[in-house]
Amino acid sequence: MMTKAASHTFSTGRRVLAGLFLTAALAMAQPGRDLLVLTSTNGSPNNLAVFKLDTSAAAALSLVTMLPTGGNGGAPGPQAGAVQFSGELGAVTNYGSNTVSQLLRIGNSLAVTGEIRLAANCVNPVSTAISGSQLFVVGSTCAESHSWPWGFVDGSVVSLTDPSAAQIAAGQTWAAVTLTSGSVLQLPLNGTGSLNGTSTDIALPSNANMVPLGEAFWGNLLGINPAHSPDSFALINSQRQVFPVLGPQPAYPSNAPCWLAKGAGNIWYAGNSPGKAISIFFSDGQGGSFYKSVPLPGAPTDISVSANGAWLAVIYTASDGAHVGVFSIDSYGDLTLVAYSPTVGVAAFDGVAFSQ
Fold first, then answer.
1. Is residue 10 scored above 50 in pLDDT?
2. Contact 338, 330 (CB under 8 A)
3. What distance in Å separates the CA atoms of residue 91 and residue 136, rounded to the nearest whole number?
4. How confident is the model at residue 11 (pLDDT cuts 50, 70, 90)?
5. Do 353 and 80 form a contact (C-beta atoms < 8 A)?
6. pTM score, whole prediction
7. Are the C-beta atoms of residues 46 and 94 closer than 8 Å to each other?
8. What homologous superfamily does CATH list for 4-25+41-355?
9. Distance in angstroms (rounded) separating the CA atoms of residues 201 and 21
């Protein structure tokens, strides 16, 4: 017999499937779409702030709508990945409601199609990742994978004894969770790409183990930001070998690359909160180097690169509240400011993603 929760998830899945057919039809009729930037207000109630980027001569980043997610925020910092988007579908965490809201884009509009509930005894989601047919979620007690876009728990839930999860990300054969207490967990994937229920603590060297926050995969190679360490960027392969990289100097508290996004080729972008900048790194598979920092008018808290690699979005907090900044990325990986958003009455945003 189908449980009430399973019935709810199944109903949501049917609505999403119907929406996908509609979206496909609309996409055929509309070859061009607006470039949207999405972020969460993390309030109670929680809203998805949707901004449109205008790249004409008078470039601007304007607020389109505040879309209610149907849940409550309230996640404490620091963390990243609260908002994700891939193709026509996205997700946003509702920390205070123990749910993830599912998003659907239709033309130039976004809709909340339903909620995904966490597994039993799993609470306070702070970060998500979409990879293939899986949605990964981490909160204060669990890391879990859900069949995407249907929403039901897929694979085995990984219980966490450390409540300090900052972000979850997924590679080809493993996923990873950064813990602000000072470690990174390797979470192997099974044959279907879901979690297999086990985790292994990755030993970090003393010069790259202080407050791991942001992370991103390059294929099966993980990049992380041990934000308060002199080596504030590091690479980790599937064999759990760690390759630290010296960050901008002076190190914390003057500089601390905290939040990470993967650019094209061997380029990585990190939101440097105390440095009020985006710090750029280059790497191979076993090391790398810090390139330079691009200044911001506030402290960044999450960062994202568009699917086509042409744009970078960053959320930051200034004296007048939360903002979104968008930069263009040239063929060399350098950044050029396009636009900053106006204030919209939100003290701090949580998570940022593109929808193209």
1. no
2. no
3. 10
4. very low
5. no
6. 0.92
7. yes
8. YVTN repeat-like/Quinoprotein amine dehydrogenase (2.130.10.10)
9. 42
Do residues 79 and 165 touch, judged by C-beta distance below 8 A? yes
Do the strands 155-156 and 195-196 form a parallel or antiparallel pair, or are they unpaired? parallel
Q: In what order do the strands lie in the sheet with 134-138?
A: 127-131, 134-138, 142-147, 158-159
CB 110 within 8 A of CB 103: yes
Determine the Cα angle at 260 with ends 150 and 189, to 5°: 40
Q: How is the chain split into domains, by residue range? A: 4-25+41-355
- Rounded alpha-carbon distances, angstroms, from residue 340 to 83, 89, 204, 312: 19, 25, 36, 12
